[in-house]
Amino acid sequence: MEFMDVLKNRYSCKKYDGIQITKEELEVILEAGRLAPTAKNNQEQHIYVVQSAEELAKIDSLTPCRYGAPTVLIVAFDKNNTFTYPGQKYDSGIEDAAIVTTHMLLAAKSVGVESCWVNFFDPDKVKEAFNLPENEDVLTFVDLGYAADGAGPLANHDSRKPLADTVSYL
Ligand SMILES: Cc1cc2nc3c(=O)[nH]c(=O)nc-3n(C[C@H](O)[C@H](O)[C@H](O)COP(=O)(O)O)c2cc1C
Description:
Helix 1 (3-9) packs across helix 4 and helix 2 (23-34) runs antiparallel to helix 4 (93-110). The protein is globular. The longest helix is centred in the middle third of the chain and has 18 residues, at 93-110. The protein has a four-stranded antiparallel beta sheet, sandwiched between helices. By secondary structure, the protein is α+β, with helices and mostly antiparallel strands. It has helices at 3-9, 23-34, 53-62, 93-110, 123-129, 163-166, and strands at 45-50, 71-78, 114-118, 136-145. The chain has six helices and four strands, in the order ααβαβαβαβα. Flavin mononucleotide (FMN) binds at residues 11-12, 14, 65, 116-120, 153-154, 156-157. Flavin mononucleotide binds next to strand 3.
């Protein structure tokens, strides 16, 4: 698929058919995350692949937004290995995990896998439920799977502001 078509066709899927994605598709998605840029190339992301019924049930206890996806990625990052901005107030952890996530969402679409970025959960409870290391913070879940019959983009998918509202030429 052409890159702009991937961008146009990706949508947040909110109903999956439950069929597991293939190992090859998952590997393409994870590789796309691996190729993402990170500040200072720190690569502090840590992706947890959740596929077993037992672990998916934990996801369901943490968010209503799995929508039947058979695979969920938990995207976390090592908060001790981020780039700190000059001024020492901000760091790159969220940004780095976000671009890794973005790469994976787009790669998913390119291989015919639908996705949804989910942040409707308490990150501390996710850490506790999955016994994640103390030095990692959780940014997002990524639902992955094939769309169920009748599923598709919500009405707001095409409602993007015109560029004039979000871009200024200085
Ligand atoms: C940072 C972020 C957090 C999101 N969290 C959720 C979520 O918790 N649950 C959900 O159903 N969708 C979530 N979404 C999906 C957005 O609602 C969706 O991207 C937006 O409405 C535009 O729709 P589209 O992705 O189909 O174009 C999230 C998206 C982003 C980028």
